[in-house]
Structure formats: structure tokens, C-alpha cells
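Our consortium's second objective concerns turning raw sequence data into structural hypotheses that experimental partners can test. To show how far this objective has progressed, the report includes one record in full. It was chosen at random from the queue rather than selected for favorable results. The single chain below, 68 residues long, was entered without modification.
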Amino acid sequence: MNNIKELRDQVGKTQSDLAAELGITQGAVAHYEKSRRKPGLDTCRKIAAAISRWGIQCSINDVSPPEK
């Protein structure tokens, strides 16, 4: 499970906003948020960096918490 949607909602951004920031499609963001696909490590880092730039301190573990 990931926290991408919750983090994105906290900063008031849309899937399209995040997609544009990452250089991917809005559909890819939707798949990541619904856990239909898992973003790679590099993409998780980019998501964390984008959310941090938007005002919330965010790490890769906030985006995709380690599985227990």
C-alpha cells in the first residue's frame, strides 16, 4: 500500500499536476495510487521530491512505506 493519494491531497494537487511534475501520464499516477502498478525506486524518489517542493516534508518511506 502506498500513500501517494493522501500526500497529493494534502498539498492540494491533482493527479495531472503530479504527472506533469514527474513527466509521466495521469493514468500512470492513477495506477500507482490504486496499487495496480508499483512505481520504481527512482519514481518514488521523484514523487517524494515533488511533494517536498510543494510544502510537505516527504521521504521515500512516506510515499511507499516498507512492507512488514
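The partners drew two points from this record. The helical segments are 4-10, 15-22, 26-33, 41-53, 60-63. The first helix runs from residue 4 to 10. Both points have been shared with the crystallography group to help prioritize constructs.
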